[in-house]
């Protein structure tokens, strides 16, 4: 059976305005300070203390940060906020978001991605839908905001996954951009038996997309051999000015847990760009994926699925440097975060750092970096003494990007109960999160993370963090006691294919 075939359209019941009780907070004891922090009002999991706004598991948390407006997408819900956390219009289903963008007959949209492009001052969003009755293949959905204000509407497009009449089903959609184009990727599976059969990439010239045509003709490439592409490609979000060459890069985990970089080269504008995949070309230390038994949580023997070691959150490029985070295991067998920095020009690794805590599991990270080397990693964490909670840690890279100094991690939203909502045989969480720089101030970062808002319910939490302190900080949560250290080592490889979201 196809992994998404049993999807049904999510139903919105009511908007949740209650915040998790986090107590009284003091400012962080370092330069990183929380300026704004609020519950999104989107809740999923099992019915309980709060009415659900999403019927899907997991949430696939996404956030885009513009000059004035935040766009927050999850499986099952879409919301818009100002930078003070006020909801600008009623929360709607993710299906309704796509219907409002002009796409007819949306059928269970899932796996949202959304990013803001400071060069065009527009937002891009993508999702996948489920097959229509009697069909095997699904569609990739892409939208661009019509103006810099996402409340002014979006232009949406439906891109068939099975181009070339292949019987493909798309999963693990991802989205990126550079100066010339917008890039998408997905993993392709056989519709009938669900077997992995390759990767599909798409490239669209910005000059085409930003003309808001009635239909799009993306440059599409299907590559069957994972020995050339790696697994679960992430299009790079490239903030550099670029050149006339497409240079649309994709980064993927390779077989031995090193990485493969593939790319579109040539001209996007005249539709002559060509996708090139050459296999493993970024050589880095091997780490095992997060423990298969999952992440420990307070008050129960039921663990939380901490994902695998595929790249799931955005990969960032600034100048000649590419930054990514990945879920791995620490030497003591806890779920941990890997921060990797390598040069785009020659794929040489500059920094390979493990972010870990001997007493807690850290999972589903995302990272943002500014031009001066300040970075923020957002993630979830839990342990025997803590429910699943939202965290962030601020770091500072040196000029050569060969080392990083971390501050004390910040607890953004404390989980308040155990979480157990089995799906596909797993107590699923994630599968990714989002962290970005505010386009109006490179010293301010935003992150959207997941936490246990009530028993067996996930919620999402949005925070703005200043990396150089700010006397105007309010509601800054207490620092957490977490230890950060760097280690290498060779570990055995264990990989699970990404499971598509399901309704609870």
Would you kindly provide a written description of the structure presented here, covering whatever features stand out?
The protein has helices spanning 94-100, 206-209, 226-229, and strands at 33-45, 56-57, 62-65, 69-74, 77-82, 110-117, 122-128, 139-145, 154-160, 168-177, 181-190, 196-205, 219-223, 231-238, 248-253, 259-265, 274-276, 280-282, 315-318, 321-329, 335-343, 349-355, 360-369, 374-383, 386-397, 404-406, 410-413, 422-423, 426-427, 434-438, 441-454, 457-466, 502-503. With 504 residues, it is mainly beta. It has a single domain (33-497), classed as Methylamine Dehydrogenase, Chain H. Strands 14, 15, 16, 17, 18, 19, 20, 21 and 22 form a nine-stranded mixed sheet that branches. Strands 23, 24, 25, 26 and 27 form a five-stranded antiparallel sheet that branches. A four-stranded antiparallel sheet has the order 1-32-31-30, with no helix packed on it. A hairpin with a 3-residue loop joins strand 10 (168-177) and strand 11. The radius of gyration is 21 Å and the shape is globular.
């Amino acid at each position: 059976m196809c992994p998404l075939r049993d999807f049904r359209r999510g139903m919105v019941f009511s908007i949740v305005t209650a915040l998790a009780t986090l107590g009284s907070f003091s400012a962080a004891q370092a330069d990183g300070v929380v300026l704004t922090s609020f519950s999104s009002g989107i809740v999923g999991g099992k019915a309980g203390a709060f009415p659900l706004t999403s019927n899907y598991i997991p949430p696939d948390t996404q956030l885009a940060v513009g000059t004035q407006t935040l766009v927050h997408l999850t499986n099952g819900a879409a919301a818009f906020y100002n930078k003070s956390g006020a909801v600008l219009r009623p929360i709607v289903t993710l299906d309704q978001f796509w219907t409002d963008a002009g796409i007819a007959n949306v059928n269970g949209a899932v796996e949202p991605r959304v990013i803001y492009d400071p060069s065009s001052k527009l937002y891009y969003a993508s999702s996948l839908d489920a097959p229509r009755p009697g069909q095997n293949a699904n569609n990739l959905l892409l939208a661009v905001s019509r103006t810099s204000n996402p409340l002014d509407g979006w232009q949406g497009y439906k891109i068939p996954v099975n181009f070339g009449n292949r019987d493909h089903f798309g999963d693990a959609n991802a989205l990126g951009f550079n100066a010339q184009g917008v890039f998408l990727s997905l993993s392709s599976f056989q519709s009938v038996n669900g077997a992995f059969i390759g990767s599909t990439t798409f490239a669209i010239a910005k000059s085409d997309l930003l003309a808001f045509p009635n239909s799009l003709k993306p440059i599409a490439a299907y590559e069957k051999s994972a020995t050339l592409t790696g697994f679960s490609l992430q299009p790079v979000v490239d903030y550099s000015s670029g050149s006339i060459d497409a240079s649309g890069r994709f980064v993927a985990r390779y077989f031995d847990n090193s990485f493969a970089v593939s790319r579109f080269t040539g001209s996007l504008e005249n539709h002559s760009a060509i996708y090139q995949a050459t296999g493993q070309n970024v050589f880095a230390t091997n780490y095992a994926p997060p423990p298969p038994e999952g992440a420990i949580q307070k008050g129960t023997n039921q663990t939380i699925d901490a994902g695998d070691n595929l790249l799931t959150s955005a990969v960032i490029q600034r100048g000649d440097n590419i930054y990514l985070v990945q879920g791995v295991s620490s030497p003591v067998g806890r779920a941990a975060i890997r921060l990797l920095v390598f040069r785009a020009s020659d794929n040489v690794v500059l920094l390979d750092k493990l972010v870990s805590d001997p007493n807690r599991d850290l999972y589903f990270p995302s990272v943002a970096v500014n031009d001066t080397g300040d970075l923020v990693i957002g993630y979830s964490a839990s342990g025997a003494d803590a429910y699943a909670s939202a965290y962030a840690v601020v770091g500072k890279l040196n000029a050569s990007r060969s080392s990083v100094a971390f501050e004390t991690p910040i607890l953004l939203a404390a989980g308040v109960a155990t979480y157990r909502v089995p799906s596909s045989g797993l107590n699923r969480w994630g599968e990714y999160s989002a962290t970005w720089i505010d386009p109006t101030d490179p010293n301010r970062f935003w992150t959207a993370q997941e936490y246990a808002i009530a028993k067996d319910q996930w919620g999402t939490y949005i925070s703005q963090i200043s990396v150089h302190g700010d006397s105007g900080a309010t509601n800054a949560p207490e620092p957490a006691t977490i230890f950060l250290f760097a280690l290498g080592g060779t570990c055995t490889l264990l990989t699970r294919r990404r499971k598509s979201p399901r309704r609870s």
